[in-house]
Amino acid sequence: MATATPTPLVTTPCKVVDTANLTISEYFGHVASKDGTCSFAVVEVRAADSAAFQTPAFAEYAEYVICNQGIIELEHSDGEIVRVEPGQGAFLPSKLRLRWRFPGPCNYTVVCTPAFSPELAAHEESSGGTIVSAEVRERLKAMHHEAGSAPTEGGAEGGAEGGAPLRATLVAPVSVVEG
Predict the structure, then answer these.
(1) Would residue 154 count as lying in a domain?
(2) Structural domain harbouring 86
């Protein structure tokens, strides 16, 4: 019996958010590729703005961010700010409460594991932030619902083991192949 040969999956980005100030183009994830393993998106912010605080409630949810252009400021709930500059990356562990701030236009790439969904990201609409309106957030929820995404387990309490506060981890690229 012959087995099928795997072939690459080539996707076209899907604009899951497209407003005057923000475009999120998802290449892989619930909406673009119908796969919840992870999501991969490129985000374009066109002017200074900020998002509401978020506290991903699921133990396994994490984000990996690479700043391509501009500056990203990650504000922790205690007011500490981590600046991510072009060429730097940041790891955002599960259950980390923070707010994304953009002092000006920027472009970044984000990978979420598992794939982003509004329920997993757990944005706190009452904490301010104007980059995504309530109407846009509802459209995003509807897109994910139509794609069949849904959380698979209950949330977990925030905080790292041992009670230490969670923090964004700033990373710089490392050359793995020398030419």
Answers:
(1) no
(2) 14-130
> Are 22 and 44 spatial neighbours (Cβ–Cβ below 8 Å)?
yes
* Total number of domains in the chain: 1
Question: What is this structure's pTM?
Answer: 0.79
Q: What is the DSSP string of 82-97?
A: EEE-TT-EEEE-TT--
How far CA 34 is from CA of 42, 112, 114, in Å, comes to: 17, 14, 12
Q: What is the pLDDT of residues 41-78, one digit of tens each?
A: 999 999 999 988 888 766 678 899 999 999 999 999 89
Q: What pLDDT digit, counting tens, does each position of 96-148 carry?
A: 889 999 999 999 999 999 888 877 767 777 667 777 767 777 777 777 778 77
Question: Encoding tokens for residue 133?
Answer: 């309106």
Give the CATH number of the domain where residue 66 resides: 2.60.120.10
Name residue 102's beta-bridge partners: 49
CA distance 55 to 42: 21
Work out whether the CA dihedral 160, 113, 27, 123 comes out positive or negative.
negative
Sheet holding 98-102, edge to edge: 49-50, 98-102, 72-76, 81-84
